[in-house]
Every structure is written in structure tokens, then in C-alpha cells.
Amino acid sequence: MLRFLTERAIGMAVTLFLVSIMVFVIMELPPGDYADRYAFRKYSGTGLTITEADVAAIRAELGLDKAAILRYFDWIGGIILRGDFGQAYAFETSVNSIIGEKAWLTLGLLLVTLIITYVVSIPIGIFAAVRRGSAVDYGLTVFSYLGLALPNFLLALVLLYFANSWFGAAVGGLFSAEYADAPWSLAKFWDLVKHMWLPAFVLAWSAMAYQIQTVRATMSDEIGKLSVTAARARGVPEGRLLLKYPARLAINPIASTIGFDVNRIFSELPIVAAVLGLTELGDLLLKSFLDLDMNVAGAILLLLTVVIVVMNFLSDLLLAWLDPRIRLGG
Amino acid sequence: MSATEDPRPETRTERRERERRERYYAASQWTLIWWRFRRHRAAMVAAAILGLMMFLGIFAEFFAPYGPTDRDRTYVSGPPQLPMFCDHNGCSLRPFVHGTSTVRDPVTLRAVARPDPETRRYVHFFVPAEPTKLMGLIPSQTRFFGLEDGEKLHLWGTDTLGRDVFSRTLFATRTSLSIGVLGVLISFVLALTIGGVAGYFGGLIDSAIQRVTEVVRVIPIIPLYMGLAAAMPKEWSSTQVYFAMTLILGLFGWPTLARRIRSQLLSIRGEDYVLAAELAGARPGRIIANHMLPSFTSFIIVDLVISFPYMILSETALSFVGLGLRPPAVSWGVMLQQAQSIQVIEQAPWLFIPAGFVVIAVLAFTVVGDGLRDAADPYGQSG
């Protein structure tokens, strides 16, 4: 078990290192650098003439004239040693102060989304497998096709429209206007809960469709096994029998794909955030890509990926705990 | 010809049965797959829908009555005009639409097109029109349908600039599907190379490649695409952006297929015929392409078809938020950019028609992929 743990932990570290290089490359990709943009923002409209020398001076001041590899180590060193993601140029403040609270909101949203996904998909998947070929099963197949085919931003728009016409009030965003900048309180938290279900449902949509199919497929395989027949012969009540043998195994593939689901959810986050007017990392990521504020964008991309990698690790652990074959074989 | 020793002459049904069997035993793998696929009714329907979409997209210049950027200033944000056969003045065999007249909205003072139920404009087929080039190559002066004497028919209404939604949707179909095709092709070549090298050589090379694959798989794909798309210079022309987009989509679409190819190659790496080819002096590239790949080509094709929807959805999502294709290029995502708010759903729901195309295309690709997967499985039920 210890060996299994260390192996996975080392693998995780290597992956994170490579991810950080990749993110850094993406941050470096856009043409021009911050010195140009900084000079433009600061002096445009002032009537002053900017020379190459001025830009070069700004560049030196910001430390942008160093070689890429040095800048990479500055960047990653700051993150690892001090938790400092550098300057956010578009907002003229530090990345940390922009991301700060939003990171927790995003994590909260992710958690709610995951809970919705599994609470819905596991029982429904089991039910569909037990009632194979029924109208419910058929309907679920159609739903799972739609889960892939209906782009989530479209689903978000449609739900927004119906929520608007049924509930009247605007349901977009994560907070009502009066709570947006208010300090945390019970009332604000309740406001958040009231707003969170819609984005969480939209984000859970395709993961749900996918997982229902997975649970249904594994469950269908397991139901035909001899262990089930044997238990039935022993007279174990049908409900307990289903939970104890096939359902117990049908959960394994879900445990092994948690990281995959998180990846899917984060992938859809920026688009859904744009439609629903959410104010968390996905929305910020999109805005900073559009503004080419690459320090913010890179920091968010890195954070999202770290969450995914950690979730992958946790899912490995969970699977090893659920399935002794992996624990002992690995 | 037949090897039967039976002196009794064959009856017609017997001969038919024998021929059916001979066909079955003589059929190549691809014929068998096609026979099995043909029996999958949903997949056949989906394939037909895709075929139709591609056909409409390829010949968009012929089927679309107007160009993708032509503006009709007399019919801005106009609702769809559905051809009808009957109105309160009686019926006609030739479909027609009502004429419109432009009036000013008393409140907003905007020019609004209002249908005039007394005038009729008849729909004609194969009408002469301004010269265009089919697929940019073949000169043509005929359009599939249109109204008499230069009046304009907006089957699915117009957008806020007075551009015909139907025409734009057809051109968008061409763009979106072709981006999918090119993206899939690029990622296919990459997957083949990367998966091939990893699976054939194994060992250290394999572990290194596996690490890189892991990294590409672990970064959320749409944010990754966004980062690359954001790096495209703003002054690029829409054609440059188009090709850059296909590259971006293709560049990171390979991991799933590469893993599949790798594991398949690893599993047949030790077969005798591979060793035989090696002893005969064949080089790795030839062994992979000529000896190993054919044993699982059908699976690769299935995976390719299944990866289409992701390409199309990614392109749509990126263009939708303004990081993908840019006007004047027109794709489903670019069109949907105009439909980002609830207000649009309320005031101009026809701007959502391209979304229907996205859903149908993705569904069709998925169903065809499923059908192909069942058909390509030699141990499937309907063998």
C-alpha cells in the first residue's frame, strides 16, 4: 500500500511539473509582452511619445528581459515558495487578490456539481440496468445522447429563460446584487445556495449523462453474474441483493473517473460562466484570455489543473480502498 | 460451378440460399461490416442526415439564396417567412409568401418589416441569380430557389444586420463540418505517429510519451484551447484564423486515439507475423502501417467518428465566446454569438436555428459512431 501511494505521488509530481511548463508556454504565446501593453495603457491618451527605450526600461523593471527559463523559475518559484502568482496587469493588482475568494467559490461550485452528478446518476443508472428495455431505460438512453449533443451553453440559456419566466427574478450569477460585495454572512450563504443550483445542474448535465451510462453498463454486466444467482438462491431479498453484489461493483468505474469528471466540468466552466454571468474562476479565465492578461489566465489554468490532478490522485486512492485487487496487485 | 454431388436439380429457393451463403462466406471484412451497419436503422438514418448536411454545406452557394454576408436593409431582424399554399384569398399550387412593407415602430422609431397579407410573392425553383462560384471553383448563375423579380425570401428570418439566417446557416454548416474533418484528420495523423511510436518501441520512449499524453489529458481542454486561441494575433485574416483553429483542435485531440493505438500495438507486438516481417528486413514504419494497423483499422475509424462531436462542440463553444472564428467567417458558433442572452430568445428565437444544427450533427455523429462500433465488432450479435 505504501509503495502504491509513493508511486502515485511521484507520478503526480512529475505530471504537475510538466503541466506547469505547458501553462508557462501558453502564457508566453500571445504576441507582444506586458511591457508593450503596460506602456500602451499607461501612456495612451497622455500625448507623450513613447520610444523603444521607454518600453525597454519598463521591460527591465518588470523583469521581462530575462531569458524565458529564468522567468519560468521566477514564476513557479514564487508560486511554490510564497504562493505568489505575480502581477495581474489588466487590474493593476496582484493575481492573488483577484483570484482569492473566487477560488473557494469555484471549489464550492465543483463540489456541489459533483454531488449532484453522483446523487442523480448512481441510483438512476442502477434502476435503468434493473429495468433494462423498459420505457424508463429507453428514455434514459435518449437523455444520455442529449447529454453529449446539447451544448451546455445552450442548455444554460434555455434554463435561464424558463427560470426567468417561472420565477420572475433574475437567476443568473452566483449572488443577488445586494450580496455581491457584502461580507460573508448566513444570509449571503443562503443567497449563494439559491443561485448555485442552476449552474451546478448545467455543469453536471453531461457528466451525469455519461455516468448513468457507465453505471448502467457495469450494473448490467454484474447482474448476470453467478454470485447474484447464488445470492438469489439463498433467498437474499432482491433489494439487498442488488445493493450488496452488483451495485457495490458498479460504483468502481465512477470512483476511477472522478478526475475525468472534474476535468469535464472545468472544461465547460468558462463557457457556462459566460452565459450565466457567474463570478468565479471560469468567468475570470475567459475575461483574462480575452484581455490577454496571461498571468491571471496562467494562474487559473494551473489551479484548475492542480485540482484535477489531485482529484485523480484521490480517485486512485478511493479505488484502491474500494477494490482490493488494485491495492494488493499494485 | 457448385460442388454439390446431388443429382437432383436445384430448386430456385435452394439456389438462392446457396448463393446467399456463398456471398456471405466470400464477403470481405468491410462488406460484412457494411451489412451489419445497414441493419442498424437509427445509424442509417443518422448517416443519411449527415450526408444531407454535408451535401447542403458543400453546395451552399447553390442551395443558399444569398451570400453569407449579404444584407437586406429592408428586412432587419425579420421573422422567418414560411412559404404557404393558402391564405384568406384562396389557394395556389405554387407556394408563396406575403410581401412586406417597411414601417417605423412608433415607440423605438426603428424600421420594422411588416407582412402585407394582400400581396403575394411566388417561390420559384432554379432561379437565375448573381453569378457565384460553387465551392469557389465552378461558376454558376442559378440558385435552388428564390422569389420572382428580385424580391427576397428569408426562409428562417434575418439577424440584426439583415443577413439571411438560412443562407448563413448553410455556409456555417460547411465551415463547422470542415473544421471537424480537418481537426480529426490532424489529430489522427498525430495519434498514429505518437501512438505508433509508443506502442511499437515500448520501453523508455513509451514511458516518456505516456507522461506527455497524461499532461495533455489532464489540462481541461476548452480552457487549453482558449489559451491557444487567445494567442492568435488580432490582425490575422479570417482564413488564417480558420486554419489556426483546425490546427489547435487537431493538436490536442489525439490522446484518446493514441492510447488506443498504443495498447493495440503492444498487444500484437509479439505476434509471429511481426517477427517475420522484421526478419524480412521491413522497417518499423512499414511494419506498423502494413502489418499491424490493418488488424484494427475498423476500431480506429469508429474512434475517429466518435471524436467528431468533440471537435464540433469545441469549435462552437470557442466561437460562441469570441475566441474562435471571427466574422466575416461564419460558423455555427459565430452565428450563435448573436444569441447569447434571454432577450434574444424572447425577441428573435430564429437566431437559435444554428443550435439545432449543432445538436443534430453531434447526435448524428454519435449514433453513426455507435452503429459503426456494433458493426465493426466481429463478435457482435448479428454476425
UniProtKB/TrEMBL annotation, chain A:
This is Peptide ABC transporter permease. InterPro entries: BPD_transp_1_N (IPR045621), MetI-like (IPR000515), MetI-like_sf (IPR035906). Keywords: Cell membrane, Membrane, Transmembrane, Transmembrane helix, Transport. Belongs to the binding-protein-dependent transport system permease family. Its main location: membrane. Residues 103-315 form the ABC transmembrane type-1 domain. The chain crosses the membrane at residues 9-27, 103-130, 142-163, 296-322. SUPFAM superfamilies: MetI-like (SSF161098). The keyword tRNA-binding does not apply. It is a multi-pass membrane protein. The keyword Cell wall biogenesis/degradation does not apply. It is found in: Cell membrane.
Automatic annotation (TrEMBL), chain B:
This is Peptide ABC transporter permease. PROSITE patterns: ABC_TM1. Its main location: membrane. The chain crosses the membrane at residues 42-64, 177-203, 215-233, 239-257, 293-312, 348-368. Belongs to the binding-protein-dependent transport system permease family. Residues 173-369 form the ABC transmembrane type-1 domain. It comes from the Bacteria. It comes from Sinisalibacter lacisalsi. Keywords: Membrane, Transmembrane, Transmembrane helix, Transport. It is found in: Cell membrane. It is a multi-pass membrane protein.
